[in-house]
Design brief:
23 strands, seven-stranded mixed β-sheet
Length: 499
């Protein structure tokens, strides 16, 4: 049985805890590897070594750090196929989806090449008699990233890219379910020129998370996962004096107005609702057609599209629409919620409960489900299902539709499909949700904007990637200086290259 270990001080580090977590092949249900789980002592050792390595890395000028990011981009592109293959084998998503996972992380690394500009401070000349005032952005020191299973490349890259480019060292604690890609990324960073110890990958469970939250050297923690854990990490990290940005669950609504292009809306709902088996925090899981006529026409278009979805392992080719969910427990939770929807009175118009894939009977596959006439009191509406299940809530008016999205406890993403600019503008202005799509189903911002939800989808003041990431991973120092005026003789006549 293959064993997966940690990455500490630029090399594989075999754990000593004797505790392991199984890594499954979701398509077959078989255990394909054992993951070593760290002890608190091993986590603390990794932090100590990272703190030592960070001193020199933090003193390296930003342009040289950016050159490491530039080479890292080249190496990721070189190994894209290899990364996607490993990612798919552990997570279950299709190869095109796995490449998209890597690509959206890669775009943040490309943005981080501009770190020298983002780290510039401000300057005021002659703030007083002979006095100049300026600010500097400096790294925090050692920071940590705790990342989820559903994007094993993208989210680690979102965390480590800005943190390292800003001059920090990072402790990365990836998901135990699909840990190999983060380790591969650490190896590529070493090849790109990152000094040993600046990025430590420590695998673990709640014991490792708590060790991160309680370690006094770690100055900031970034997390993506479920809302209860996001809130727990935010509260414990904050209580220990750390910065924290913690992103949780979602229940993303798409409002479909009567004037919308319904074929376009139906295509968008199928891709956004069932892609990656629904295991996305930006998945559309609630369709809100406005008016009975709109709802009937939308359901009529959705049913054949959903029934034609091809579900299978990533090895079945690039025409597979989505693969298995990540674990048997995840599958059972999805089916439990589907049954609750039936029991509570929702109309199951596409029933995927009996889905069975010949040759993969032990895999964690879940057929697509479509509910109609869902109401806000039902569990399938209130709960993040994180599976291939789309719920339709019929609204009688635009105001009722927008009220549904605004009153839900989650506020990660939302979308509206309409041809009316006034409606779209009103929606974007009023909605109390962090990321908004107008005729765009999954409004994930590009790398040079910031990503983050509102309400119980996000805890903390600063978002992921974009300028907010560099604000999060640095602190500002302001200097007030007075120097006696005068001219010194002598000078240099050669243009000096960057040291």
């Amino acid at each position: 049985m293959k064993e997966i270990h940690h990455w500490i001080d630029g090399k594989e580090y075999k754990g000593t805890s004797g505790r392991f977590s199984d890594v499954f092949n979701p398509a077959t249900g078989e255990v394909q590897a054992r993951l070593s789980l760290a002890t608190k002592a091993e986590l603390d050792h990794a932090v100590e070594r990272a703190a030592a390595a960070q001193v020199k890395w933090g003193a390296t000028n930003p342009q040289r750090r950016a050159r490491v990011m530039m080479e890292f981009v080249r190496l990721i592109n070189r190994d894209m196929d290899k990364l996607a293959e490993v990612l798919s084998s552990e997570h279950g998503k299709t190869i095109p989806d796995a490449k998209g996972d890597v690509q959206r992380g890669l775009e943040v690394i490309e943005f981080c090449i501009g770190a020298p500009h983002l780290l510039k401070g401000e300057f005021t000349d002659s703030a007083g008699p002979g006095i100049d005032m300026y600010s500097m952005r400096q790294p925090l020191g050692v920071v940590a990233g705790i990342t989820p299973f559903n994007f094993p490349a993208m989210i680690p890259l979102w965390k480590l890219g800005p943190a390292l480019a800003a001059g920090n060292a990072m402790i990365l604690k990836p998901s135990e379910r699909d840990p190999s890609v983060p380790l591969m990324l650490a190896q590529l960073l070493q090849e790109a020129g990152l000094p040993d110890g600046v990025l430590q990958v420590v695998n673990g469970d709640k014991d490792s998370v708590d060790a991160i939250l309680d370690n006094p050297v770690i100055q900031a923690v970034g997390f993506v996962g479920s809302t209860p854990i996001a809130q727990y990490i935010y509260e414990r990290a904050s209580a220990n004096g750390k910065r924290a940005q913690c992103f949780g669950g979602a229940k993303n609504h798409m409002i479909i107005m009567p004037d919308a292009d319904l074929d376009q809306a139906a295509d968008a709902l199928v891709g956004a609702g069932y892609g990656a088996a629904g295991e996305r925090c930006m998945a559309i899981s609630v369709a809100v057609p406005v008016g009975e006529k709109t709802a009937d026409a939308l359901i009529e278009r959705l049913i054949p599209r959903i029934e034609k979805l091809k579900v299978g392992p990533y090895t079945a080719g690039n025409d597979v629409d989505y693969g298995p969910v990540v674990t048997a427990a995840a599958k059972q939770n999805i089916l439990r919620l589907v049954q609750s929807g039936i029991d509570q009175g929702a109309e199951l118009v596409v029933d995927g409960r009996d889905f069975n894939l010949q040759g993969y009977e032990n895999g964690f596959f879940v057929g697509p489900h479509l509910f109609d006439r869902v109401t806000p009191d039902m569990d399938i509406y209130k709960t993040e299902i994180f599976g291939p299940v789309l719920s339709t809530v019929r609204a009688g008016s635009y105001e009722e539709a927008i009220g549904l999205a605004m009153s839900h406890e989650y506020g990660n993403g939302t979308a509206i499909y309409t041809r009316d600019g006034d409606t779209a503008r009103d929606f974007a202005s009023r909605i109390n949700i962090g990321m908004v799509g107008i005729n765009v189903p999954i409004p994930v911002p590009l790398a040079y904007h910031t990503f983050g939800g509102w309400k119980k989808s996000g805890f903390g003041d600063l978002n992921q990637h974009g300028p907010d990431a560099f604000r999060f991973y640095t602190r500002t120092k302001t200097v007030t200086a007075r120097w006696p005026s005068g001219i010194k003789e002598g000078g240099e006549f050669n243009f000096r290259a960057m040291d």
